[in-house]
Amino acid sequence: MNKEKLRKLIRESIEDQLLQEVDLDYLNSAMLKEERKEYRKPIDLSTASTRQSNMAIHIVSDDKRISMVLYRPHKAYSNNNWVPRFDLEGPYADHRVVGCIIATKTKKPCISPTFQIKYAALAKHMQGKGYGSLLYGLMFQYCQQLNIGLTSDHTTDTSPLAQKVWKNIENTNQFVKKMTSAQNDTFDYTGSDTPEDPEDDCAAGSDNNPEEMATHHSWQVTGNNYLNVLKDLIQQHNNYLSQMNNSEMYLESLKQEAYDLFMEVI
């Protein structure tokens, strides 16, 4: 299996998972009425189970790539209390990663700065519980702080399932299209639609087919629905780092587990 086919399988698998969390009946009725649905609030981690309420997020970000790993440490009973464990190996080391999402900078401007969602995955036991929406919400919120727009994968083609996920975003309040300085908000795949505006030039996938792209815009969220959750998860992560004997090795193990999760969803 070549790399492009592998990427497509990974993408289509997670899109199938995420669609389980999209209210398609509501979406279809809203589209017929030309209405926009309300932006859903994130799952309330503070009222979730003990394992879920102790979640944290590890974010690695630079000018070309943003990766997020949502995880929870295992718990051990000590001194009449449940405390986090940060084992690198052994019976407590597995299944820490809840989900992960990666966005990379588009090769062409695509109304720069714009990143494309390349990969996302959820652990099987966490699917259908709102965590797919949480991952997307956290990525949009994080990018909002950096004035970065998000779009679908424009390096390869996108499946019909991906188009439904992004259609859901298009029909949800608090999401707006980024615009160029010339006030254009739609990608120009040929360079001839708006030849005077190179800021909206964008690639149309490996087959150069705009119809296979899930969205033709760079999207930003205007609200702060996920801001407090994002801050809390980052703070929890920093708290955990301060308790680790070898944080570098632990983070490397999280990175490997996230990769394994991507492979598992194929």
How many separate structural domains?
A: 1
Which stretches are poorly predicted, pLDDT < 50 over at least 5 residues?
12-34, 46-51
Number of strands: 9
The helix-and-strand class reads alpha+beta
Name the strands of the widest sheet in spatial order.
Answer: 1-2-5-6-7
Give the topology string: H per helix, E per strand: HHHEEEEEEHEHEEHH
End-to-end distance: 12 Å
General form: elongated
Question: How big a fraction of the residues is strand?
Answer: 15-25%
Question: Any idea what the radius of gyration is?
Answer: 19 Å
What integer is the average pLDDT?
79
Described by strand count, sense and barrel closure, the largest sheet is: 5 strands, mixed
Helical segment tally? 7
Structure description:
By secondary structure, the chain is α+β, with helices and mostly antiparallel strands. It has one domain. It has 7 helices and 9 strands, in the order H-H-H-E-E-E-E-E-E-H-E-H-E-E-H-H. It has helices spanning 3-19, 24-32, 50-53, 131-145, 160-170, 227-243, 247-264, and strands at residues 56-61, 65-71, 74-78, 81-85, 97-105, 114-122, 149-151, 175-177, 219-221. The strands form 3 sheets. Strands 1-2-5-6-7 form a 5-stranded mixed β-sheet, sandwiched between helices. Strands 3-4 form a two-stranded antiparallel sheet. It has a two-stranded antiparallel sheet with strand order 8-9. It is elongated.
